[in-house]
User: What shape does this take?
Amino acid sequence: MTQLSDEFLLAYLDGQLEKGQTAEVSQIAGSNPEISRRVARLRRTQTQLMETLGGFAREEIEVPQSALQFEGGEAKPKGKPAVSANAGAPARKSPGSARFVLFLSAVFAGVLLGGYGATVFTAQHTSLPPKAVDRAPAALFTPASWSADIAKFHSFFPREMLTPHPDAILNPEFIRFQLSKITAKALTPPDFNSKGFALYRGQTLKYNQDNMMQLTYSSKTEPPLTLYVLPADGYADSAITAQAFGSYKAVSWVSDRVRFLLTAEKDEENLKVLAVIAQSQMPRKP
Amino acid sequence: MATNGQLSSLQREIIHKALPRLYKFALVLTANEELARALLRGTVKALNARNEWREEDRDRLTGGFHRMYALWAAKTAEDPAIHRKCPPDPHLFSTALARSPLAGNSHFAKFIANLPSPQRGVLYLVYGEGASYDEAAEVAELNMLSLMKLLARGHLALTHWLDQLGLAEDGMRFELDPHSERERAA
Assistant: This one.
């Protein structure tokens, strides 16, 4: 916990942490001189930025009237603005270039029609295979539940994709920060070190309208273990339930408005043990 | 709702009320008055074309800031040398800094003007506008981690600047976070 990054300490000073995390950092800063010094340094730059940029934000300022010249779509712009609403779009072409484009289009269309005509005369007319109309489109797949849905999603991750990626969050403090943001609770990733699994990666993914945290744990001897954590507004608490998806087994549960799904290439009983460990480390309900 | 090119009274009122804040954000992003005026014009034009306006848009300017940020990002991507033609002007920030207790205001104005514009933009949103990290990330279309890194690097740059001027507290050199130091070296 004393390996706190500047980013995390800054989030603490800027009031972006959950209550529990704020109290924890305050306690560490009070007892650890190195952290305390770094907090003091960041507080100083924070004060400086708030005074200057805040002063600039509060300053009375005269807005140039030229900014209003487009309003209502009646007035025409005087001269070419340096930054227009369609910045990045190609500029209007001159009549000369328009004629050139027209000529190119005519040549292109001629080649295209000529090619099509050739296929009409030379191609052998074979009937196309009948359409499979009775096949259910993938888009219509309806999952039995959120846990089956996520387990199916997880089965698309080959093992090598669960190894560290440049975009992944490797810093445990960031993982905690992001986990707390997603679940709106001061949650800490479960510690499975006693079972030989160490947390090495966290990344934020989207599941329907929710953000979802994917936490991956590695082991020296076993395949990786993945825990999905996402908010559970509208879901009642539920006990650990097991399910299988291909070679993957998964266990899921809902606790205090947070959904969890733990999955690995392990048997059901082992996963349930790990789920109980994770549950025992979650903060107690008030 | 705007119909047939006419602005609704709500839309007109919101845009008028937002103009000073939008103009300041344009000044912060561009650090140049001429570019800021053009950026404000572009943003107002884009906002005028927007159809859906709600009551809560009166106080929440995230959408307006986001359009401005995106326009500026598109412009700088299109013309990376734009600041060579229209260089940053530290005087834009010096009035606000005149009231700041920090010694060497003119130097500080220069420091602010020379920060990379995405960094200046998010620092302003968080410390000037008082936006939350979520709002600033939404405006700048950044994920949370990238936003936090951008903010922390701004603080680090300011610490170095204070160090160089010998303004670090008690004349002591601040110890830097080893992670940030490694990133800088990389």
Chain B touches chain A through 71 residues (CB under 8 Å). The radius of gyration of chain B is 18 Å. Residues 123 and 136 of chain B are 9 Å apart (CA to CA).
